[in-house]
Design a protein that fits this description.
It contains three helices and five strands. The protein has 134 residues and is an alpha+beta fold.
């Protein structure tokens, strides 16, 4: 079976692209303002996130902007490059109905939040060997 999202892939990430049990972890490459046209012909300026490890882009709303600013520790989107975010599916109320949407948060796994540090071997001076010989 083929889904509509697979048959007609969108440039933008949306709730239909994100499985409810499998969030997407992505690294922000850059953000830029773009003019988007809606189906009814209106235009709107939106901040669009581009990722180094995801082909689709994310048009930000206020909720997701604030979440990323909190994760990055910076509300200047020009300084978000390299920030990892987790994009997950949830719902929001719109016109009195629960509607699927996507939100962002800090990555939930230790492996995606910080690089693993190699343990350093303690420096041992051979002359300071305190072994007792019998």
């Amino acid at each position: 079976m083929v889904t509509r999202a697979e048959l007609f892939p969108s440039r933008f990430l949306n709730a239909s692209n994100v499985a409810s049990d499998h969030p997407i972890v992505a690294t922000i490459e850059f953000a830029k303002m773009e003019t988007l046209e809606s189906k009814n012909g209106n235009t709107d300026e939106k901040l669009i996130l581009y990722f180094s490890d995801c082909k689709q882009v994310l048009a930000l709303n206020g909720v997701n902007f604030d979440a990323i600013a909190g994760i990055a520790g910076e509300d200047n989107s020009d300084r978000w490059a390299g920030t990892k975010i987790e994009i997950y599916r949830t719902t929001t109320e719109m016109k009195g109905k629960q509607t699927p949407c996507i939100r962002v948060r800090a990555p939930q796994t230790e492996a995606t939040t910080r690089p693993k540090l190699k343990a350093k071997k303690p420096l041992v001076d051979e002359e300071m060997n305190d072994a007792i010989e019998f």
